[in-house]
Design brief:
This protein has 10 helices and 15 strands. It is an alpha/beta fold. The protein has one domain: Peroxisomal Thiolase, Chain A, domain 1 (3-Layer(aba) Sandwich), CATH 3.40.47. The strands form 3 sheets. An 11-stranded mixed beta sheet has the order 5-4-6-7-1-8-15-14-9-10-12. One of its GO terms (molecular function) is 3-oxoacyl-[acyl-carrier-protein] synthase activity.
Length: 370
């Protein structure tokens, strides 16, 4: 007998540069608020536009707070029968950096709080879980965490999965992207011909995914598609081969055709290589009915490993509110053949395709529906 249970997002919480909670996040997106700040501290004699969380609390405190918020809004008394799945590309690197800058030495850095599983370790210090696993696949980390949650629920392995996407701003990542010459000195403008680059940001996104709807606002994780184009260490295939394959696989998993997709939450980082590859893939795949397309990273920045989970929350809110975001800062379209969302508007949305693409050509597309 084949087990094929459905997976639903029943509760979620977030914090990012776009808002201290998910409602503020969505309001910032809809009102096209200025959420990216100019920073001069990371790179000497250089201004960078970054997405910083505005809070006096530590990243760990915020992480626990958001997990508690999801638990409080759930039908669970605790997380003891819940599987924890974390997606992160930074892990505990910022903790190690702070210790190093304080001591001017590596001697007091605790390896326990350096690796990718640092996020899971912090959470498990506060809550008991049935088991846990951590993903680190660069910018698809928490998208893969959402996908994995859907898979283990659909196979009847777990009933409750807590997905956490979390990445903090660290010198390692900011300087790394600066070395690639892809950072912008102003808020990014994905898909615009005059784009300058991306904005590295930080975020925490927590979702409780379960095998039953807990309320009328529950959103289904309908399908997940993966691919690996293995074209280049950091750049995607210029013809969008891997991106297109991931989207096709998500459609196959959801058992729907491309004409059912109403909106695409694009990866849209604001770099030439990323934008052009994704847009070419979208224009090739969606030839007849062209869904609305926008990137929300001009508001949220690119929160790296946390982006997939954060955009799962954004997709959930779009489905719940039936409001489509626009492309902030898009003035001169670079590639034709795509139905760019030009204004924030109410629209009938049944299915959303959300893309996450990463270094090494690893790609994840997720379909959400109501």
């Amino acid at each position: 007998m084949t087990i094929n249970k459905k997976a639903y997002i029943n509760s979620f919480a977030s914090i990012s540069c776009a808002g201290k909670n998910s409602q503020e996040l969505f309001e910032s997106i809809c009102k096209k608020k200025e959420t990216i700040t100019i920073d001069k501290t990371y790179i000497k004699d250089k201004e960078l536009a970054l997405g910083k969380i505005d809070s006096s609390k530590s990243f760990k405190e915020l992480l626990i707070q958001k997990c508690q918020k999801v638990l409080n809004n759930s039908n669970l008394e605790d997380f003891k029968n819940t599987f924890l799945v974390v997606g992160s590309s930074v892990g505990g690197m910022k903790t190690s950096e702070e210790q190093f800058f304080k001591d001017k030495s590596y001697e007091n850095i605790d390896p326990k709080y350096h690796g990718i599983d640092t996020i899971a370790t912090w959470i498990k210090e506060e809550f008991d879980f049935y088991d846990d696993i951590s993903f680190s696949t660069a910018c698809t980390s928490s998208a893969n965490a959402v996908g994995y949650a859907k898979e283990v629920i659909s196979k009847g392995i777990y009933k409750n999965v807590l997905v956490v996407g979390a990445d903090s701003l660290s010198y390692t990542t900011v300087c790394g992207f600066n070395a690639l010459s892809v950072l912008s000195s102003k808020p990014c403008t994905p898909f615009d011909k005059d784009r300058e680059g991306m904005n590295v940001s930080e975020a925490i996104a927590v979702l409780l995914i379960q095998d039953n709807r807990s309320n009328s606002n529950s959103v289904e994780v309908c399908g997940v598609g993966y691919s690996s184009d293995a074209h280049h260490m950091t750049q995607p295939h210029p013809e969008g081969i891997g991106a297109m394959k991931a989207m096709q696989n998500a459609l196959l998993d959801a058992k729907i055709t491309e004409d059912k997709i109403d909106y695409i939450n694009a990866h849209g980082t604001g770099t030439l290589a990323n934008d052009s590859s994704e847009l070419i893939a979208i224009s090739k795949l969606f030839k007849e009915k062209k869904p609305l397309v926008s990137s929300t990273k001009s508001i949220t920045g690119h929160s790296l490993g946390a982006a997939g989970a954060l955009e799962a929350i954004i997709s959930t809110l779009i489905l719940q509110k039936q409001i489509v975001p626009s492309n902030k800062g898009l003035k001169r379209v670079d590639i034709e053949g795509v139905n760019y969302s030009k204004e924030v508007k109410e629209s009938k949305i049944s299915y959303i395709l959300s893309n996450s693409f990463a270094f090494g050509g690893n790609n994840t597309s997720i379909i959400f529906g109501i």
